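Methods — Computational structure assignment.
A single polypeptide chain was analysed. Its primary sequence is given first, followed by the predicted tertiary structure written as structure tokens.
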Amino acid sequence: MVRPASFGWNPQTGISNHFQPSQAPAAAADASARAIVEFDGLVAALAQAGVEVHALADLAAPACPDAVFPNNWVSLHADGTVVLYPMLAPNRRRERRLALLQELEQQGDFRVSRLLDLTHHELQGRFLEGTGSVVFDHAARIAYACLSPRTDPAVLDELCDELGYQGITFHAVGPDGAPVYHTNVVLAIGCRCAVVCAEAVAPAERDALLERLATGGRHVELIGVAQMMNFAGNVLELRSRAGSSVLAMSQRAFASLAPEARERLAARVDRIVTAPVTTIEDLGGGSVRCMIAEVFLPRGPAGGRPVEVR
């Protein structure tokens, strides 16, 4: 997780992200200070649940209004691969800092053996914004992607070829009929449960997606478009230090769910953790899942081996 230094409404992202306002609201003046309080609250809630959190610091300059969403520029995999992703907004590309990855390696004794750099696709106007664009089913080695201006199938194909995953694409729209900007607001995948806004998915693709998500007996929790817009799909299952399962979501997302849905989700994890991140949701158009870049990297020294760059 990255503690923001300059959080605020980003004019470069609002065109494709309809979860954020199209113009800067008047209440944005103290947004950075409020976002830091919300960030620290989420870190504390996760730590209290036993989740190991590496909270790294953003730089004050250059200003990165969306630095609190590191999952869009990096993913960290169990085979030691780190992937850097192409992002649509030029001012978001400043968030990619190798120094943060070096700090993470040192803090957690993690081992990186390969750097897969996909950022060259920005030169051709092709984008794939990390685990915003891609929702991984690591157990089945499937990469789900909702196509949008931020999610290009050609980049997904290259990612899947490199990682040995199968790519599955679909289309989804919000209440205004515009493409949903990121897959991780439509879909979340955990060990025993998936959360999906099926009514947002194109009708011709819906049944096949639901069937695939239910493979292996996984429960599929359906949410409506109104719940999706309240970030009920932007949730993430984590593992605590003790090995228990923790489902992280915002208070807004949790409040949008019916009591029966909360019970069904709670029955499939050991604990649900919620935190208020209202400022980050209102201005940034992302929620708790967007704030977390999960770490699957192996631990231990790299043994002096050079990092392979692809």
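Note: The chain has one domain: 2-6+28-309.
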